[in-house]
Write a structure and sequence with these properties.
This protein is of the alpha/beta class. The protein has eleven helices and twelve strands. A hairpin with a 7-residue loop joins strand 5 (198-209) and strand 6 (217-225).
Amino acid sequence: MSTLSFGEKTKVMLAVLFAGENDFLLIDEPTNHLDRDAREIVKRYLSGKKGFILVSHDRDLLDACVDHVIVLQRSTIEVQVGNFSSWWANKEKADAFAKAENEKHAKEIKRLKGAMTQSQHWASKGESTKIGYDPVKEHDRSISARAYIGSKTKKMESRVKAYEQRLEKSIKEQEGLLDDVEQIRDLKLSPLKHFKDRLVEARDLSLRYADADEPVFTGLSFEIRNGERVFLEGRNGSGKSSLIKAILASESAADAGDMVLEGTLQTASHLKISYISQDTSHLHGDLKTYAMENGLDYSLFLAVLWILALEQTQFDKKIEDFSEGQKKKVLIAASLLTPAHLYVWDEPLNYVDVFSRMQLEKLIQEYSPTMLIVEHDVRFAEEMATKTVHMLKEE
């Protein structure tokens, strides 16, 4: 097991799960690390099954396999008939209605507050004139006017009280309107522009490990130019992560370790790379220490994590106690805060929620960074890729 890739380990666990005589399956994020072909197999298998609960952020899988959606929202739990796309369409409509109602109530509250302030002013003014008067300035005022002014003031005070009750009612109606509205906040990125157009070039490249008889891949040729988003596509174990490690070693002129390369692999001089590993096991300690060790502004680091919907209650905890999705957000935030010519992301979306995936899609479309990405999320790849490099696994 220790020699298998993350995706291959996931396949073993799924084989154990599906080979058993289970009448009811609890399946927790089965497609993390899986290649596209394996995801299709899982999708076809589950689409023919009944009676299971599936936790997943894979939109393509959810649309194919489920007929009900249970959504754990910020303040409520919702159950709907349908798949992810039907639920998302309904949610967008519900969120738009809640925002419109919120704006309507806010305007009504503002109007009521203005009317109440004016009425309070009139009531106070009337009360002050009820007792005592200046006989020189008010020579035509009779003593009976006191009762009239008192009655008028009482009515005004009653009107103020009615305004207050209406105001309180409007505020109660407004409370909770936006509790379950997902605010997909904008992320920012500071990509660098390299003076060379070609950042990475591979020609007839082969890679094998020193203790292996066969190469991981052979005859690979591709290039990455400024502004391109290159996706590495291939089965689990085809060498995608190994290629990334070789590129990182080439960029830093470091020893490639036990990897043996044949052919050409070149990176542009003075190339700055921001890297997200698919492995989170190295994360430890608190966020402040992690930021310091990685040269990150701690306040900005926390701000980005907050935008990625990491709860502030997590900020004081040890990173090793985070969920896998929260650990991945730590790596994503660190990468976003690292100015780079090339962003190398190795399966960045594993365990990451749907809303954060949408945030990253919007970010990439807005800033157009140069990227090398391994990601098996079909919809993410279809939206983001400008070029796909297919890697064939040696059999």
